[in-house]
Amino acid sequence: MTPFDTLTSRVAPLLRDDVDTDQIIPARYLKVVDRSGLAEGLFAGWKSDPSFPLHEPATEDARVLLTGANFGCGSSREHAPWALIAAGFRCVIARSFADIFRGNALRNGLLTVALDEADHARLVADVSADPWRVVTVALEPQRVRWGAAEAAFSLDPFSKTCLLEGLDPLGYLLAHDAAIDAYERREAP
Amino acid sequence: MKTLFDKVWDAHAVHEAPHHPSVLYVDLHLVHEVTSPQAFSGLETRGLPVRRPERTLATMDHSTPTRPGGLAVVDDAGRAQLETLARRCAEHGIELFDLSSPHNGIVHVVAPEQGRTHPGMTVVCGDSHTSTHGAFGALAFGIGTSEVEQVLATQCLLAWRPLPYEVRFEGTAPEGVSAKDLILALIAEIGVGGGTGHVFEYRGDAVRALSMEGRMTLCNMSIEAGARAGMVAPDDTTFAYLAGRPGAPADFDGAVARWRALRTDDGAYFARTVSLDASRVSPRITWGTTPAMSVGVDEPVPQPTDAAARSALDYMRLEAGKPLLGQPIDVAFIGSCTNSRLEDLREAARVLRGRRVAARTLVVPGSRAVKREAEAEGLDRIFEAAGAEWREPGCSMCLAMNGDRLEPGQLSVSTSNRNFEGRQGPGGRTLLASPLTAAASAVAGAVADARRTLSEAA
């Protein structure tokens, strides 16, 4: 996992709620045994529409996606964060996230930032007014800053450490080998 | 005082530390071809073995053909996934129900029918509909591919403890109202994110009255309300279902005695509670592009109250205020891990017996065992006499990975679980409903109310 510290980027606005993982990457792009071709599948159903917001010139090198509530609902496909990362995104800012997507994203170094209603509305308004606006997402202080505005976000300390240091949580699990052995002797022979 | 969820979670917590996710032991790890290849590659890169291959069970379902012919009729990309799974299972000594196995089928159909899912177990799979297995009083949830790798390597998962959420269905569901209608009514009530961070426990008389098949349908769609899992406390219905199945415990009576303790203690804490009166639920059908957008089948398309609803109506090309009944359809799909078990097929056959379909109709059994049982009772002949296509088992048109799909613009009534834009094929439009409603709509060639169809002579 690539460590995440501070990211300064333009913002790609996808201003709707309940963006499901079938929209993030349709199932026909999951027929791979590696991680190839996933960027191509990102938002494949919507991309054919010329008015799709991610076609706006201001979003071309955006590494932050701004969206609504319950982002990533639906399927457990980890291809969804893989596709976002393959397309250059490192952070998704939303009102809220579906549970499985959030876990999948964080394990892959894609930071999920859930803002409270007022902060989210303010950021949406400011980005809508100026599509070229740049935001800075700082993980250590857990802050998003844009212009004179600033918003705090919460993140569990375990995921934060993994992101800051680029650690794969599998290492933490493997370190519990003795406890797993003991559990299996007792409960799961 | 603990909830059922608390009891199962606590019994599987290997290690818990403040501000850290729990190390949770996994009793049964289910694997399929789409979400596992990169996990096996990850193990290989790290030089790790599969810790407990005998607690791992694999099947092929998502990319598999529903026309006869097996691997020979799969496209190259699908074949590569199926062959990769077969090779990885052979390398690691994992039991695999491949296309030639008499036990093959959809992962959430085969594990229960083989008796592998037991009350009190933890069950995971790289598939969000793993929540299905909660019907047995198991804690079962979908995971991502990097978690599949965690479980293969350690038989454990890093997981944050969700909160228990009590979902009550009181009263008696009317004739013609199935578990599918109950769950669609719940999701309409609390929304697609209403269960986020929670595990449902389904309780109440209408839940107790459900068969195991119905409970599986109910738990299956917990994820469509955002909950990680849904559970039903095991009871005599559960034990009767499991008795005699190949994977049932050898000391079955001893197991039942232990399983009887798997129930929520009186006064245990639920973070949230919702209660629905099952007697007031009617057959449901979706009109939009999330599973929360549903109405009674005999109600009009509702007026949109927000941008999401307007966008959904626009995509669905449906008009607010107009009835859904009589809306012409192109395809009826009866199948998926939600509604492809024997009971579901019997319900569809109840409508299709002696009638003819007026729209293309696919009936896709959930497993080879379901297919055999259905054929033994002659359901296949009812479907074929009605003009429906009787297929080989698999996920099929639920997510359209295997070539079974809607053409752009086509409208289906589908017994599957997701009506997301393009889910059943690019540009396809999906109305989710029960097997009864799908079969009645197949006969009418338009959205229909099965209660009315069944009241008329075939």
Mean pLDDT of chain A: 97
The Rg value of chain A, from CA coordinates, equals 18 Å
What Rg of chain B is obtained from the alpha carbons, in whole angstroms? 21 Å
Low-confidence stretches of chain B: none
Q: Please outline the major beta sheet of chain A.
A: 7 strands, mixed
Number of distinct helices of chain A: 9
Q: Largest interface, with Cβ-Cβ < 8 Å?
A: A-B, 50 and 66 residues
Largest sheet of chain B: 5 strands, parallel
Q: Could you say which overall geometry of chain B the principal axes of the C-alpha atoms support? A: globular
Q: What best-fitting shape of chain A do the alpha-carbon axes yield?
A: globular
**Between the first and last Cα atoms of chain B, what is the distance in angstroms?**
54 Å
Query: Percent range for helical residues of chain A?
Result: 25-40%
Poorly predicted segments of chain A:
none
Strand order of the largest sheet of chain B: 5-4-3-6-7
Percentage of residues in DSSP E strands of chain A = 15-25%
Find the structural class of chain B using helix and strand composition. Answer: alpha/beta
Task: Present the secondary structure layout.
The complex is a heterodimer of chains A (189) and B (458).
Chain A: E1 6-14, H1 21-24, H2 38-41, H3 44-47, E2 64-67, H4 79-86, E3 91-94, H5 99-107, E4 111-114, H6 117-129, E5 134-138, E6 143-146, E7 149-152, H7 157-165, H8 170-174, H9 177-187
Parallel strand pairs in A: 1-2, 2-3, 3-4
Antiparallel strand pairs in A: 1-5, 5-6, 6-7
Chain B: H1 4-12, E1 13-15, E2 22-25, E3 28-31, H2 37-46, E4 56-59, H3 76-92, E5 95-97, H4 107-113, E6 122-125, E7 139-142, H5 145-154, E8 156-159, E9 163-170, H6 179-190, E10 198-203, H7 205-208, H8 212-220, E11 229-231, H9 236-242, H10 252-259, E12 272-277, E13 284-286, E14 294-296, H11 307-316, E15 331-334, H12 342-352, E16 360-363, H13 368-376, H14 379-385, E17 389-390, E18 411-414, E19 429-432, H15 435-444, H16 450-455
